[in-house]
Please model this.
Amino acid sequence: MRERRSRSLAQDLEEYLSRWTERTGIAVEVWALPADGTSTRVAQAVLATLSEALTNVERHSNADVVSIAVTLGDRGLRMTVSDDGVGFSGPAAGRGVTAMRANFADLGGTLTVNGVEGGGTTVTATAPRRARGV
Model:
């Protein structure tokens, strides 16, 4: 059973991103936000993952711009967070990455983190539409 939310995920994301960019001075480009409603569980996973990804951008990337896209379609939910920062080489590791992966694993989904040294970082998360309440 879905819990009713007074605000949409898109509204929550817009508010969070506005506060984050005001606080950090890092520009945010929003490419897409979900038009459809999501369950509270999905919204919490998206917001927690986005928060961790942006914490990493703020702490480590030296980025000027972050691009965000969150879509919800017939095939499921997809979230992409890309920055134009310093990037990294090698596998992504650490508590934050583990937590982000767990957020989407709980929805039956996956999360990847790809960095290009000198070319930024991209976090991509997906969750199937019909699995585990998406």
Remarks:
- Helices lie at 9-24, 40-61, 95-105.
- DSSP finds three helices and five strands in the chain.
- The mean pLDDT is 89.
- The beta strands are 27-32, 65-73, 76-83, 110-116, 120-128.
